[in-house]
Amino acid sequence: MKADETVTMWSGQQEIVMDTLNETGRYIVKKSYVEEKYKETAWIFQEAYQYLAQCAKELIPKPADAESPVWLYKYARHIYGSEGMYYLELRIPKEKLITFDTRKWSRILNLNYVGKSEQEEAEFQKWLEKRGIRDNLAIFSTPFYPNEKQKIKKSWSNLLEVPVEDDEYTQGMTWELQKEWIQTIEKAQAL
Fold it and tell me: Name one Pfam family in it (predicted).
């Protein structure tokens, strides 16, 4: 595969993922991993992940056994790591990768409105406050705000429709990791 057909990205993975890659040559994420990792707040992540997964299925091929995205970053320094984590430099085929602005993705993970601009986001927040809503969590955790929830979820399309303007904030996802994509491996050191 030619270099111009791939994109260099980084992923932080635990030893169990490395073992899987070495044994099978590939790794996919199951929803149960997300539930196990995030426990009582897993439903928030599942809401965001489910939205992105639905969009991603239409943009890049999804293996039948993949249930949740594998997270990627343009720069290794953006990976939230811990001792023993492996930092993988990957060359991923473009057709298996979606990139987006990590700041917008963070808004989705916090169940917030994602505008095309900060001004649009501020205007939406004012609209919510006029309606007496100060906590977006209530919009998603109760049945009382179906219109507000719909507006917020509709805004999430801006994640993939608005291009990343600053490479520093490039994050991405793929449905799987393949051992052949690994260029370098760095193991996190104790602090």
Answer: DUF3841
